Amino acid sequence: AGYNVIVVGASGAVGQEILQVLEERNFPVGELKLCATARSAGKEMLFKGKTYIVEETTPESFDGMEIALFAGGAASTEFGPLAAEKGVVVIDNSSHFRLDPQVPLVVPEVNPEDVKAHKGIIANPNCSTIIMVVPLKAIYDAAGIKRVVVSTYQAVSGAGAEGIAELTEHTRAALDGGEVVPSKFQYQIAFNLIPHIDVFQEMDYTKEEWKMVKETRKILHDDNMAITATTVRVPVYRSHSESINIETVRKVTANEAKKILEDFPGVIVQDSPADKVYPMPLYTSGNDEVFVGRIREDNSLDKGLNMWVVADQLRKGAATNAVQIAELVIKYGCLLKK
Ligand code: 2RA
After folding, report:
1. CA of 154 to the centre of ligand 1 (A)
2. Is the dihedral of CA 8, 21, 52, 39 positive or negative?
3. Residue 99, CB half-sphere, CA atoms under 13 Å: how many?
4. Closest CA relative to residue 325, chosen from 140, 70, 132
5. What's the CA angle centered on 138, arms 136 and 144, to 5 degrees?
6. Beta-carbon neighbour count of residue 127 at 10 Å?
7. pLDDT, tens digit only, all 338 positions of the chain
8. Which residues contact 332 (CB under 8 A, 6 or more apart)?
9. Spatial contact of 311 and 10, defined as CB atoms under 8 Å apart
10. Taking CA 15 as the corner, what is the angle to CA 14 and CA 19, rounded to the nearest 5 degrees?
């Protein structure tokens, strides 16, 4: 029994994490197919103790499949619509379809019902958006939100396995006095911060910053919410951190906010300054929750909150969120093939 699942982009950092999460959550997998570009075809990968050979993705790869998990990248554009036409429900981690009105953009703790409106493709939001919108939803429901100001401190895993490797290489070279050769990043990432993720667009904001603005409004169904973002690459391996300032409609004290967040699914509050308790990316990696700390009232606003949010970019930021969406597709019975 189970559902026939194809993972596209299986050999990359997100793809590997998707396999691990499918196994950990005991997702009801019937037949499993692992696909990637020709460059990765032939690689062996383990799932539930069984070895699978990665195949090159072709249109025929989707025959007989029911759910497709796309790790992201160009494959989504090339094969996503084709898979959906074949009756496969596509859960796509690329940015390509996220703002398409026909495509639900879903974080299961935030807007699960949107899954039901899918027409074959469901988009996984950008990692930095997912991490922000989980705690944001808790505050939004309790007190309404007028404006959000967010600054991110994004791990190198956001640039995939090569990004992870580059941090190691640059750090070693910097310490050994060797030559640092930037390739995934614009400059040396070791001992540095780079305020440039993706490409620059209108108003000299990057595409990463506009993603946080536009995706959050779509997920919360609130086009009036004022949001501004600054996204920065930092020398951290796997978890993204975000400093979030929120202007609320109704006043919320820090203690009220802490309680609201503690009660929200998918959030873990780590907030005890006297005991030096607050989330840090070195310790949140490998988890699926969004960790929140440094919860304070904004001293400069009548109705404002500050919080520090950290979560694993490869898991809740990508793989786990995608698998949770697949679980909703089954829960709501909205597969395409009956
Ligand atoms: C990054 N959010 O962090 C982008 C894509 N994962 O690089």
Report:
1. 8
2. positive
3. 12
4. 70
5. 75
6. 28
7. 899 999 999 999 999 999 999 999 999 999 999 999 999 999 999 999 999 999 999 999 999 999 999 998 899 999 999 999 999 999 999 999 999 999 999 999 999 999 999 999 999 999 999 999 999 999 999 999 999 999 999 999 999 999 999 999 999 999 999 999 999 999 999 999 999 999 999 999 999 999 999 999 999 999 999 999 999 999 999 999 999 999 999 999 999 999 999 999 999 999 999 999 999 999 999 999 999 999 999 999 999 999 999 999 999 999 999 999 999 999 999 998 76
8. 115, 116
9. no
10. 115
Give DSSP secondary structure letters for 52-107.
EE-EE--GGGGTT-SEEEE-SSHHHHHHHHHHHHTTPEEEE-SSTTTT-TTS-B--
In the block, tokens 């922000």 appear at 132
Residue 258 Cα to ligand 1 middle (Å): 28
Residues with CB under 6 A from ligand 1: 126-128, 154, 158-159, 197, 208
- Tally Cβ neighbours within 10 Å of residue 213: 17
16 assigned to a ligand binding site: no
- Ligand 1 centroid to residue 231 C-alpha, Å: 10
How far is the C-alpha of 105 from the C-alpha of 112, rounded, in Å? 10
Residue whose pair of structure tokens reads 């699960």 in the numeric block? 112
Torsion of CA 278, 216, 152, 328, to 10 degrees: 60
* Smallest CA separation from ligand 1 atom 5, residue: 158
> Which of 133, 150, 154 to mutate to test ligand 1, by most ligand atoms within 8 A of the CB atom?
154
Q: Which atom of ligand 1 is nearest to the CA of 155?
A: 3
Task: Look up 127 and say whether it is catalytic.
Answer: yes
* Token representation of residue 32: 């499993």
Across 155-303, the runs of DSSP E, i.e. the strands, are 226-233, 239-248, 267-269, 290-297
Which atom in ligand 1 lies closest to the alpha carbon of residue 197?
7
Tokens of 226: 């004022």
Pair of tokens at residue 89: 């429900």
- Which residue type, as a one-letter code, is found at position 43? K
